[in-house]
Design goal:
single chain; alpha/beta; Alpha-Beta Plaits; 3 domains; 11 helices; 19 strands
Length: 395
């Protein structure tokens, strides 16, 4: 059996639902397909409060009452999605859902999506929001740069020794000798709960989850928090080194599947939410002119030259983290959070702002120590030249 639509979106995460919602708002007949398209998400999704505006009516989020980063109070809003409320808001939209698994994409006129059940979804455009690159095609190979984390959820009163109820904590470092540095990430959750998570930012490969759990238990013990009070756990592992994915034929990769992840922080949901309405509008305007026009419009919207430049600059930041000696990683972020907050905003949220991103990185360079500066320079060099520079900085 074949179903017809203007757009088929593959994937029911925040990126998939965001772009499906905005396609439907642009009067496009939209189908979203995933094995469980209306099931509420289980991961914790954080974003800056300036990025929540594109959520559908009825969506909810928890706004942190205060944000602490590297022991500084930041004048910036941070929020965590209320997953159940957001999913209820999305499922109330005009998007049609199909509960099935995608087994293949069929190019042609019109293109189609083949499902495990034998069903076919025919459409004019396919949006791949299926998550990590490689699920529906070839992704980066080899040992990946990963972010990993192990967290426990507590009633907010039980977690108060590490996180004041309602507050968010970034990068409270465990500066334990020569170990690879990890930090506490603590955020308020719906229902008066708090997530306490031990996090390793960018590492190749990611720090093992059992080690992160061990460090979290050590942190809890020092704070006098009983792990027996936990009411849930969370495990995080994802790759951070995917390049921008090309728009090919009738498939537009979007969100993490399209390489839309901040290469230095791992954040992706906020960028997907803010990009979704712009992409959907471009699709709606170009679709009547045919598939070539849609491809051009999607490429121009998602990956203009400015966004590609920013991605390269952020990847440079990632390489800096990978080349820093463990003891200097917290120092790098101390320098970052010491620069003016408008510079921080440009680096964290300016997806197509190369000037702002470069200005922020230059400010970090100016605020950093000589050894951190050497790592930033070496990140742009060949491996042999980088080793020579690092030897010189250590003398």
């Amino acid at each position: 059996m074949d179903d017809q639509a203007d757009v088929v979106v593959i994937g029911s995460g925040p990126a998939g639902w965001a772009v499906a919602d905005h396609c439907a708002r642009n009067a496009l007949d939209t189908i979203l397909v995933a094995p469980a398209p209306t099931r509420a998400w289980t991961p914790t999704y954080g974003l800056w409060t300036g990025q929540v505006r594109p959520l559908p009516p009825g969506a909810a989020f928890i706004r942190a009452t205060r944000l602490l980063a590297a022991d500084r109070t930041l004048d910036r809003g941070y929020a965590v999605l209320d997953n159940e409320a957001v999913m209820a808001a999305y499922t109330a939209t005009a998007v049609r859902t199909v509960a099935d698994a995608v087994v293949g994409i069929e190019q042609g006129r019109p293109p189609g999506v083949a499902l495990r059940s034998g069903r076919r979804l025919r459409c004019r455009l396919i949006l791949d929001a299926s998550g990590q690159p490689g699920r529906l095609g070839k992704g980066p190979r080899g040992v990946r740069v990963e972010q990993t984390a192990y967290g426990m959820v507590f009633p907010e009163a039980s977690a108060a020794a590490l996180a004041v109820p309602g507050e968010a904590v970034f990068m409270r470092w465990d500066r334990a000798g020569t170990e690879w540095p990890t930090f506490l990430y603590a955020v308020p959750l719906p229902g008066g709960r708090t997530l306490l998570e031990e996090t390793s930012l960018a590492r190749r490969p990611g720090l093992a989850l059992p080690e992160l759990k061990r460090r979290l238990m050590r942190r809890l013990e020092k704070a006098g928090i009983d792990p027996g009070d936990r009411i849930g756990t969370e495990q995080v592992r994802f790759a951070m080194d995917a390049p921008p994915a090309p728009v090919r034929d009738s498939v537009v990769p979007f969100g993490v599947a399209g390489g839309m992840m901040h290469a230095a922080t791992g954040f992706s949901v906020g960028e997907a939410l803010t990009a979704a309405p712009l992409l959907a509008a471009a699709i709606a305007q170009s679709l009547p002119r045919g598939p070539d026009a849609v491809r051009r419009a999607a490429r121009a919207q998602l990956w203009p030259a400015s966004a590609r430049t920013v991605h390269r600059l952020r990847t440079w930041g990632q390489r800096t983290l990978l080349r820093l000696p463990p003891a200097l990683v917290p120092e790098f972020f101390d320098a970052f959070f010491a620069i003016p907050e408008d510079f921080q905003d440009a680096f964290l949220c300016g997806r197509d702002d190369p000037r702002g991103t470069w200005t922020a990185m230059a400010a970090v360079f100016g605020a950093a120590s000589t050894r951190v500066r050497a790592a930033m320079v070496s990140a742009s060099l060949t491996p042999a030249a980088a080793r020579a520079l690092e030897r010189g900085a250590g003398e």
